[in-house]
Amino acid sequence: MTPPSDAPADAHATASERFPLQFARTRRFSLGVPRQLTVSPDGERVLFVRSASGTDLVSRLWLHENGTERLLADPLDPCFTNEEPGEVPPEELARRERARVTSSGLVSYATDASARLVAFALQGVLWVLRTDGGAARRVTTAGPVVDPRPSPDGSLIAYVSGGALRIVRADGTGDRPLAEPDGEHVTYGLSDYVSQESIGRSRGYWWSPRGDALLVARVDTAAVRRRYIADPSDPERPPRVVAYPAAGTANAKVSMHLVPVRGERIAVRLPAEAGDGHPEDVWTDRAFEYVVAAGWDGHGPLVSVQTRDQRSVHVLEVDEASGATRVSHRTQDSAWVALRPGTPLRLASGALVVPARPGGDSQGLDIGGTTTPPGLEVREVIGAADGRVYFTAGEEPTEIHVWSYATDDPGEGFVRVSSSPGVHTAAVGGATVVLDSRTPDGHTVTVLRAGVPVGSIAVLAEEPLVTPRPLALSLGRRKLRSRLYLPSWHRPGDGPLPVLLNPYAGHGMQVVLEVRAWWVAVAQWFAEQGFAVLVTDGRGTPGRGEAWEKSVHGDRLTAVLEDQIDALHAAAARHPDLDLTRVAMRGWSFSGYLAAAAVLRHPEVFHAAVAGAAPADRRLYDTHWEERFLGHPDVQPENYTRNSLLDEAAALTRPLMLVHGLADDNVAVAHTLRLSAALLAAGRPHTVLPLSGAGHLVGREQTASNLLLLERDFLWKSLGR
Prior knowledge:
The chain is of the alpha+beta class. The chain has a domain at about 10-25 and about 465-720: Alpha/Beta hydrolase fold, catalytic domain (Rossmann fold), CATH 3.40.50.1820. About 20% of the residues lie in helices and about 35% in strands. The protein is built from twelve helices and 44 strands. Strands 37-38-40-39-41-42-43-44 form an eight-stranded mixed β-sheet. Strands 1, 2, 3, 4 and 5 form a five-stranded mixed β-sheet that branches. Strands 14, 15, 16, 19 and 20 form a five-stranded antiparallel β-sheet that branches. Strand 41 (about 580-590), helix 8 (about 590-600) and strand 42 form a beta-alpha-beta unit. The longest helix is centred in the last third of the chain and has 19 residues, at about 700-720. About 50% of the residues are buried.
């Protein structure tokens, strides 16, 4: 499994010895990458966050204007460091964990409507600055600041502190509360756990366009069960408490309120439950427990709610004077209503942009009555600017492109903005499109004005020390999109290679894409260690239509494992050097769960596995995510039994390494501990690697670096080096 003696020794040493540390130091090559792009409405200015290099952990605020970049705020500047330091509030740390933010410094910001005034928090301290010049200015507040957001005219800053929504004038005067907690477990202006982690709604309040009121979420977690995340390596440190609604248990109670800057708060009268037309099933729950989207535009507040069983979504127009609501759009589905990021979007005309099924199996959009064409799989709505709606979509599942539709010139039709094969997204404002492109050749950010390049934003991420060389495959009767990575020093006929399956294969994420992403580099690194690495997106992953994505309804494992096995055999038929007597799988989160299931259910195919952060007991995962697939555990317990790995522990006959971060509040370490206990009770040898202080994303440099090496060594030993 090591390269032959005539292989390029230097290249192999680089990949073997230096890549794991590079992977860890660059935080999966995420440092130095521009993110949180904001384009001013006139298209003249682009704000973004980026660190100074591919290994710099401190994020800074930048401005691109007139073709050049300018640093606006550096957290290491004396104007910030000379101030008395504060402490990052726990609510902000939770937001970063949910967003998988690995950098420090200035990690988020918000602007007024013209993108002239910027507000951000550093160590819980509120700062404001103007993009047209001048130094950042500290604004004194009543307490540590979370999620500060200027009013549209920039005269006021709203923020959350101690669970209360407060405002302060931009000049630092007049700090006062608008909505204070009216219960021990109540907050205003924050998003609950499920909304952040599984729904994708990270915000908890929205300004009115006039700046005279806000739409605010009230969250009451009194009924939600608590989890206690402790660090066993520091027994004197108190555990962190997380209100975590596991499948079948109580959710947070989320209500919406109209909060005028001056005046009495008005409760939004959200409907209690879905009525006629709601699909029935073995388990049906019509109660609207989830607020999945919200906003406030020139036509008024807009709120989207989803039922507990996720089979109905209503878009509600809110009367800002009374809080009354009117349903403007309904969506139902017999499995679950897929939430399309960026929707609903309301156009200047008042027409809605909402998910639609344009025919066939495609998941598309309805843009004010015009539907995207069949076969174009829509991923996300970016926004509207200059009379156009921008969204991402693809006709081939391995590519995602930026598209536009001119609402004031429908005859133009749907236009693809990006051209190169890859994964593209964008930020828009006025006639400017900032095209964020990840391709097999790398990552670029291009500023387009009226379709013409007028500048670029530098991507400072390091280049991987291994050069990915994937072979694109379409395998089996389901044409499974796959990539095969072989050692650079291997030539056909050199001899058999052990096979390592390295998929994600779960809902909501693809890894078989035309990109040079971190997981591509990791796959090639394992190939350089002597493996043939096969990566496959099977049923349940996005990009291939409604039926494909929802084929895992009720059973999250059977079809997914079947596709991995089919891809393995089809790839081996094309490439005889793949040794089917030595096959392993590795993965993290869902793919860790899949890896453990592979050796438990199919030891005739899989001979070893590394399962990281594996959600082995599906009852322990959160309501919105798990009930989407398996229903309510009290009503459909057979679904949870069929998808749990605990009862299958006695079937283990192959080497299995279980890895888990002890501070993981997404997939609790209890998953791995319960599986390990079941394996021990059944007398099945296995390896457990606990990662002290690590969350769901392993961030510590030495831990992340050495973990790759430990996985490699375990697989070498298990498959026979």
